[in-house]
Design a protein that fits this description.
CATH class: Alpha Beta
Structural class: alpha+beta
Strand content: 35-45%
Oligomer: single chain
CATH topology: Nuclear Transport Factor 2, Chain: A
Number of strands: 6
Number of helices: 3
CATH architecture: Roll
Radius of gyration: 15 Å
Helix content: 25-40%
Shape: globular
Strand order of the largest sheet: 2-1-6-5-4-3
């Protein structure tokens, strides 16, 4: 059975660890690495896009990082319970035209007993910024 420690139920220490692990994985910008944190049938809402399963996650992230250059993400634990974690995050990237953006958002995560994320619901807003306004490098 595939496991991704730390496993629920979460406490402050391992919830923060889970958030840091997610941040580290996303900052690799490698869809295969990121997808390993999710169940095979994981359910996502990312903005107005709905996905199901690792295969769709990999396709989605591959396209995302083809369009979002120099992507850099920071996540912060917001709240947690037994098998749920809520995070706030921001990330920065530029598009192919060189326009920089900062995206702000919140995610709600639900984990199975093996520590794999079975649900991820993300609400995200983008703000155009100047390159000189970047905070994440």
């Amino acid at each position: 059975m595939e496991q991704k420690p730390p496993l629920p139920p979460f406490n402050l220490i391992n919830a923060k660890q889970k958030v840091q692990m997610a941040e580290d994985a996303w900052n690799t910008r490698n869809p295969e690495i990121v997808s390993k944190a999710y169940t095979l049938d994981s359910e996502w809402r990312n903005r107005s896009t709905f996905l199901n399963g690792r295969e769709e996650i990999v396709k989605f992230l591959t396209k995302k990082w083809e369009d979002e250059h120099q992507y850099k993400l920071k996540k912060e634990l917001w709240a947690f319970t037994d098998n749920h974690i809520a995070v706030r995050f921001e990330y920065e990237f530029h598009n192919s035209d060189g326009q920089w953006f900062r995206a702000y958002g919140n995610e709600n995560w639900e984990f199975d007993e093996n520590g794999l994320m079975r649900k991820r619901y993300a609400s995200i807003n983008d703000v155009p910024i100047q390159e000189s306004e970047r905070r994440l490098k």
